[in-house]
Amino acid sequence: MATQPAVQAAPPVTIADIRAAQARIGDAIVRTPTLLSRTLSALTGATVYLKFENLQFTAAYKERGALNTLLQLSDEARAKGVIAASAGNHAQGLAYHANRLGVPVTIVMPRTTPIVKIVQTESHGATVVLEGDTFDAAYAHARVLEGERGYTFVHPFDDPRIIAGQGTTALEMLEDVPGLDTFVIPIGGGGLISGIATVAKAADHPIEVVGVQAELYPSMYNRIRGTDLPCAGDTLAEGIAVKEPGGITARVIANIVDDIVLVGERCLEESVSLLLQIEKTVVEGAGAAGLAALLEHPERFRGRTIGIVLCGGNIDTRLLANVLLRDLARSGRLARLRIRLQDQPGALFNVARIFDQERVNIIEVYHQRVFTTLPAKGLITDIECETRDRAHLDRLIAALRTAGYETSQVELA
């Protein structure tokens, strides 16, 4: 990390490179706003500014580095075309700007890629090649095609041109909010945080740079700290679920990033939900990682003036719905209660009357007579209901138990 002595060598990216990238790409990307969130500031105890990169045309910051790279290619390289391996935001950002510039673009994706991502990438003018069942297999095939057909490979993060493009986000943030003293930035391969840290360390006042990784994929954390935590699992932050971080980015992070923290899935889910409810903005799991760090490590950031990049908004609508419903359940506004009844006329009516008395809305009723360990004349009823808050739910449960009903709440994992 930045506190450790390191061999000084010429940095792969300088502040001059990032300023040049800003001039190069400025006319073709959205200059997204950096806005104060009063509610999130009150919630976290920090002064929280959000950079809305989910408002880019392809809904992610990846356009910046992709465009900066494309604009520096020779005429010969442009004519032959570019290639990348990606099933995410890099694919769409590269495809969009390559097509806009008249550069042929091929994207290699694993066969397991959801059809919606294939269609979105093709809609930006890319030729999509499906190869292998993993990203590594798709990446290997892309490098083969690069050699066979003379394409230029555009790496998603481990390229100085990519890093310089991504760093333009920090230039804009400091132009809008000069008083930022902390950046809290997601880390996947490390391109975004490498560019932002380069800007931060060239500022006219000290700015701390803290990286964020999902607990399930602490690859850069392992690389920098020398740990061996496992990298596997289904994380909501799939955009930063990288098993092998970049070599260039790892060197930058080791030299000038101050810290890396890990966040759990529950905080990632809560952050996606809060950003939609409070800021009325849709972010993917990786895009919510900065806020998740503030929620999971409040003492680490309290009192700071913090810049967070909402780096992407490409989240599956069904997954988003599931995240929102789970958050309602955890907050007590949505619940499933398991109630033991006697199998006799009026039993369910009498229970429903208590819900009415407590002004609780019943959403679904699941009546179970057969698949239960109760005696033949007993039954279990699961009732999904909607309450105002946790206290309202607690009053309902107390009223049911006072009436003699054995009641328990079906909890989320």
From TrEMBL:
Class of enzymatic activity (EC top level): lyase
Gene Ontology molecular-function annotations: L-serine ammonia-lyase activity; threonine deaminase activity
Lyase as UniProt keyword: yes
Single Gene Ontology BP annotation: L-serine catabolic process
Catalytic activity: L-serine = pyruvate + NH4(+)
Protein name per the record: Threonine ammonia-lyase
SUPFAM superfamilies reported for this sequence: Tryptophan synthase beta subunit-like PLP-dependent enzymes
EC number assigned by the record: 4.3.1.19
Homology family: Belongs to the serine/threonine dehydratase family.
